[in-house]
Amino acid sequence: MAVIVENKLHFLGKNLGSLRFIKNVGIQHEINIWTEWSMPTDDWEWMKRPTAPAVENTPFEMSLTVQEAPHVPLLTHSDVASYVESIMNPELTARPRFSCPAINVRRYQHLQPHPMFFERTKVHYMFAMNLRDEGVELLPRLLASVIEAMRFLGPHYCALSLVGGGGTPDGVYDVLEALRPHVEGMGARYYLRHPAIYSEAGGQDRIMQLARLRNLALAPLTNPSRQDSGRYTNETTVIFTNDVAICTEDILELVHQRKVQEADMTCAMDWILEGLFYDVWVSRTLAGNIFFRVPLNGSWEFSAQLMPNSTDAPSRERFDARRPFQVFACWNGAVAFHAAPLFRTGIRPGVSWSSDVADPRHKVDPVRFRRNMELDGECYMGEPTLFAKDLWYRGFGKIAVVPSVALSYTMADGEKMKRLKGWVSDFVGDKGPELDENPIPERITWQLSPPKEVLCARTWQTQRWVPWDQSLRPSSGMETQLKL
């Protein structure tokens, strides 16, 4: 099966690597899935990633002091009020959005911190987001689901950190500003930044800019103010989402699987068009490969064949059964991870160390989002891929995809993908928190050693295999030719 997109369509690859379609002009109807390949290579330009300028070797910026972007109100007071009301009240229909299933209290109640064991002054769940400036229509679904999750988990145990920036403004920041008193009125912490950081700015490394935006969203935890000192701990769970159409049950299932599987990070799966997996440039299987074959011309003609290699057969079996499966790297629109790697200056205790994993005597810095270390020859990868790589290096390699959580990037596609791929509740029904054993055990058998090599795809035309810890060790600069 091949994907054919007519030349007259235009794609915008914006914000955190997520594909965006020009909306409201009916172009979705021009996209077809056919059975023959006839698309010129040049039309796949939207899948190519920019080459990083080899001018420095700074993987990320330590300073979180950035200039705020000027804010000019764009929405009327009544429009802002209607968005806020829709976000805070899931029953209102003033703004269009698809309906989500009710929360399975029996399954997720164990996620609620018990006041006997958790201080109300501690943040147990931190919700972090980077939002485009042109995604206001998505807020009534995205933020309404986040607010509902916070209410369920206990607002006093939650914080919401929002960073906007880039894109053509359409009033997102107007809504986010107006939302503050409502979130704080619930008892939750609220942080809002609108930095002058633009991921699409010419002459700047895009991955570095995206890493800066992500690190800013985490700044209340990683660089807390004096007022917040001690509020975030190793036990805090971070729920980090892109601007996706997400339901509350999606959020809770990611957190649930992170907890019951004792995972370091869990990821959703994001889908586009007629049901094609999107985050192929970022994600890597446990064998180090991308999720489907992308030939050197950059086409997605094999995108319907997920994890086709024999080395990924166990993961494919679990995916088909909608069971969580371990990967080397993922993001896929939304993740949940525990905050310990963001704090530690050492390596995870209790790991059985081998030649494939970092020497525990080697002192390492806390994990941050970063660009590649260009002068050390590190492969140019997305900041989420490097984030996962750094987790593995510190012994936090229990990373899993939860395929029952299906996301997309517009309201219309979000509902379409739910109907096509299924809602979480379609797979878990009224089950409780216990891990299921049939037909395939839900519990993951964790592999503690990473793959020896991962696929590097600076561009699809230059794919090659490199050591998984390339640039993290002095001896890791070797690379092998692409195995096609």
3D structure, described in words:
With 484 residues, the protein is α/β, with parallel strands linked by helices. It folds into two domains: 34 residues, no CATH class; 333 residues, Alpha-Beta Complex (Spore Coat Polysaccharide Biosynthesis Protein SpsA, Chain A), CATH 3.90.550. Strands 5, 6, 7, 8, 9, 10, 11, 12, 13 and 14 form a ten-stranded mixed sheet that branches. Helix 1 crosses helix 4 and helix 3 packs across helix 6. The longest helix is centred in the middle third of the chain and has 17 residues. The radius of gyration is 21 Å and the shape is globular.
CATH architecture of the largest domain: Alpha-Beta Complex
Number of strands: 16
Shape: globular
Number of helices: 11
* Strand coverage percent: 15-25%
Class by SSE composition: alpha/beta
Which CATH class of the largest domain is shown?
A: Alpha Beta
Order of helix and strand elements from N to C terminus: EEEEHHEHEHEHEHEEEHEEHHEHHEE
The total tally of domains equals 2
Reported for the largest beta sheet, the result is: 10 strands, mixed
Distance from N terminus to C terminus (CA atoms, Å) equals 19 Å
In the CATH scheme, what's the topology name of the largest domain?
Answer: Spore Coat Polysaccharide Biosynthesis Protein SpsA, Chain A
Pfam family, one: CAP59_mtransfer
Protein name: Alpha-1,3-mannosyltransferase CMT1
Keywords: Glycosyltransferase, Transferase
GO molecular function, one term: glycosyltransferase activity
